[in-house]
């Protein structure tokens, strides 16, 4: 009897201990990395260092200063810093990373990196495709990271101390999100590079000069235009105004205020874009390659600096014509610079022709570089002004000065 | 019968869905895109034909031999010795295939999430869980799939919805640029996946309502086809030609989701879909192999051989390929024909012989 109870007890004990066994497996993952073992990279950039080497710079987030920074106020500059910038040199980006790791007591973590910046000198001299390969191949880097080309050395840009945002990565990511220039993610860039024409457009950034009295470093980098890439190398850039034209052609326009100067008056009228949409219609006629861009936009009047009576539908119609002309001019300027001078198809003409004329495209695909500059582009823009804001006639002019027409 | 449990035809349909879809989701879009490019969404539709054919064959064979599985009736159709040999071939094939599936699972987990974890640990822990499910019998697998499959399918559809704003339908044009052939070529590999429906031949004798087997089998094939078409469409509309270059395009697509800077980094959900789907898939193959082996050896119970066979699967998974490239290459080339031959070719031959025998039998009976 006693023996049985002993064995029953042993049995229960064994059962309980076997239930406890799995607990030993719950201690953690095999390659566990806690937050305090990681150096979280928020932005990375590459500069050309010497003929054969590059310099990789990263912005790393310092978690322990995150709360402290705000409490301290601006008083103690060094302590409030939430980010750390480090650089390392190497033949390739992969090698530079391993050199960079030596400067950090923690594992570099790429999962939160949202911004890649490439220095213009490097982009002009070397093929960027090997670098893109690394970024795409790495399991931690994200396909949604934004890519920029920088006029200045990335190292200098990263050392800036943005007054409003946490760090430069945040600044650049938000700027890209506002769609002032082209907004290109890693996925888009890779897709453009393997696309029909092998060209790509990237936002082009520079240091925004701070007000004179302020600290030189208390500023951000802003988008000043678009860098044009062909076969993996940068071949030129266009300015912000011409970029508008490019955005129209790519149907990526979102945020814009257009200011026009109507004829026969003094001053300017500004309109804000509410909705905009464009599409490319390709056509091949008698061996001539043509593209028609159909664009539609709806706008609100936001400032009337003239004495025109904007309560009058006819005046609005006139302004619509001016608006249309302004858009057309910007598109033409973009075409002139990119299509005729750089011969880089960043508008997606090649894809448009491929979709519409798959058989013809197969034959002429090889000669696209010769065909592209000769493509005739017709613009069919319609601009509508919907509302004049909440005043009708010019707000601050006496009645008798308002032109009635 | 060795297995005492019974499941419904609906449960069977639920079990078969992730059996095809779970692994097809990750590797197949890239393989299909290589041939079909922008027509890749057509390929699953062609491929589903092989799935429907397999369902038809296994149901027909089940009609001839209602209480028997593939291993048992091949003995009756081909005779004792030839039947035993064929049975062994099937069992070794399923062992090998299951090894490959476990390896695919391991490659994905190690390649994208647990980079430094030894592969055998990843594969082994999965097999241990599956071994428990197999030990529990067909009812355990049936019920767990009743819980898992609806959740997984829902998660998957939500993922696709979240991607909608980044999709560009223009990338699908021109449709059928080079005729219908590329999409056919692209459908060969998914057809091999669809022919995995032959596992029904092991489970059909265990149905409570075998009359509904055909209906639910067909619905299961169509549901997989639907999910694959959606996967291929959304992946290509997002990634375009990059689909060909990525190892796991769907994973990249889901990583791309970003709603209001808030709903991001959702790849853990792909992992959840993948792990739970693969759990059902491996369990199904594992169970069929174990049950088939017990029937082949005329054992009274299949449970004692669960763990040994699990070990064999782990070893075969380890040996399946030296690296991911050769695994993907094998699956994209000869593997498809290997799978199609055993899962579709031989069952067709079996059905023809069984059908002829049945005709002769009827004549004999009619003559007497």
TrEMBL record, chain A:
It comes from the Bacteria. PROSITE patterns: PROKAR_LIPOPROTEIN. It is a lipid-anchor. Residues 225-389 form the Spore germination GerAC-like C-terminal domain. Keywords: Germination, Lipoprotein, Membrane, Palmitate, Signal. It is found in: Membrane. InterPro entries: GerAC_N, Spore_GerAC-like, Spore_GerAC-like_C, Spore_GerAC_C_sf. Its main location: membrane. Residues 31-207 form the Spore germination protein N-terminal domain. Belongs to the GerABKC lipoprotein family. This is Ger(X)C family spore germination protein. It comes from Neobacillus paridis.
TrEMBL record, chain B:
Gene3D superfamilies: Amino acid/polyamine transporter I (1.20.1740.10). Keywords: Germination, Membrane, Transmembrane, Transmembrane helix, Transport. Its main location: membrane. It is found in: Membrane. It is a multi-pass membrane protein. InterPro entries: Spore_GerAB. The chain crosses the membrane at residues 12-31, 43-61, 81-101, 121-138, 147-164, 184-204, 216-239, 268-290, 302-321, 336-356. The keyword Cell membrane does not apply. It comes from the Bacteria. PANTHER family: SPORE GERMINATION PROTEIN A2. NCBIfam families: 2A0309. Belongs to the amino acid-polyamine-organocation (APC) superfamily. Spore germination protein (SGP) (TC 2.A.3.9) family. This is Endospore germination permease. It comes from Neobacillus paridis. The lineage of its organism: Bacteria, Bacillati, Bacillota, Bacilli, Bacillales.
